[in-house]
Amino acid sequence: MIELEKAGGLWIATLNRPEKANSLTSAMLTELADIAEAAQEAQAFVLTGRGKVFSAGADLEEIKTTEMSVSPEWERLSAAIAALPGLSIAALNGTLAGGACGMALACDLRIAVPGAKVFYPVMKLGYLPQPSDPARLAALVGPARAKLILMAGQKIEAEEAHSFGLLDRIVEPEALMPTVHTLVADVLSAKPEIARGIKDLCRAQ
């Protein structure tokens, strides 16, 4: 249910469980974390999904019967993405929800289609967010807006998310992947150490 495409230095991981809104099972979560750790050799790494929803987060049936909501695999995944030396992009083909927010927040860029929503209903569900997610969210949108999402449980429409700085661009569905390829073009043509150096300098600010 995770498709991995490698084309030179570009790795694209696609969630392919559209009949379940690309909700993540434990097996999918572990596979994604493994892929992200292996992608340290990639020059560019892209996360996207099939269908009209990027991901509804954790599979609710597994949450009811397992401890998936507090699995360390969530943090392993987001930490591996955040550590990537190349450019990482969340290409959101639709709504981003729940635990799936962590991997998108860990990416360098987030682009989405019109009509996509972002929400992280941990308060309503009675869970804490994954440890690194609030700080990454607050770094993008500010502490008050982070609380608007995490504590007030608000669903943020794509246009508002863009105005917050949570999304970097909004593009039509047919332009989503062409935009990705445009964004990674310079990185793929550069020496890996240059891209890594620029990323390190940005982190230092």
Features:
205 residues; alpha/beta; 2-enoyl-CoA Hydratase, Chain A, domain 1; six-stranded mixed β-sheet; four-stranded mixed β-sheet
Tell me roughly what share of residues is in helical segments: 40-55%
Main beta sheet: strand number and arrangement?
Answer: 6 strands, mixed
Mean pLDDT: 95
Tell me what the CATH architecture is: Alpha-Beta Complex
What's the shape? globular
Task: Walk me through this protein's architecture.
- It is a single chain.
- The chain has 205 residues and is an alpha/beta fold.
- The chain has one domain (2-204): 2-enoyl-CoA Hydratase, Chain A, domain 1 (Alpha-Beta Complex), CATH 3.90.226.
- Helix content is 43%, strand content 20%.
- It contains 10 helices and 10 strands.
- It has helices at residues 26-38, 60-65, 73-82, 101-105, 122-125, 133-141, 143-150, 158-164, 176-189, 192-204; strands spanning 2-7, 10-15, 44-49, 53-55, 87-92, 95-97, 109-112, 117-119, 156-157, 169-170.
- It has a 6-stranded mixed beta sheet, sandwiched between helices. The protein has a 4-stranded mixed beta sheet with strand order 4-6-8-9.
- Helix 1 links the parallel strand 2 and strand 3 (44-49).
- The longest helix is centred in the last third of the chain and has 14 residues, at 176-189.
